[in-house]
Design brief:
Helix content: 25-40%
Number of helices: 3
Strand content: 25-35%
Order of helices and strands: HEEHEEEH
Number of strands: 5
Oligomer: single chain
Distance between the termini: 46 Å
Strand order of the largest sheet: 1-2-5-4-3
Structural class: alpha+beta
Number of domains: 1
Length: 99
């Protein structure tokens, strides 16, 4: 039974690792709307939020902020994370219809 649990955990972790390995970041440093961070390969709100947190922790290990707001500007949508520093992610892909 221990062996089955170990195998299950290994498969679960491998699946999580491969899913997160498809996430790519581009854009700027998130300091302004013009320099927003773009996330590619994360589908759905939960995956995008997880990718945002991962980017923040990698770039700013002591970042203690929370998602402050989601807002639109022009024809794009953004998440703003409170903390030091404030960081903006472009999340337009969550709000665009995919036919």
């Amino acid at each position: 039974m221990k062996t089955m649990a170990t195998i299950f955990l290994a498969v679960l972790l491998t699946g999580c690792e491969s899913a997160s390995s498809h996430i790519r970041y581009s854009g700027g440093d998130g300091s302004t709307i013009a320099a927003a961070v773009f996330i590619k390969g994360a589908n759905g709100r939960q995956a995008v939020t997880g990718a945002e947190k991962a980017w923040l922790l990698k770039r700013y290990p002591s970042h203690d902020g929370k998602l402050l707001s989601t807002f639109s500007y022009g024809d794009r949508f953004y998440d703003m994370w409170d903390g030091s520093p404030v960081v903006i992610f472009d999340v337009t892909n969550l709000h665009v219809d995919r036919d």
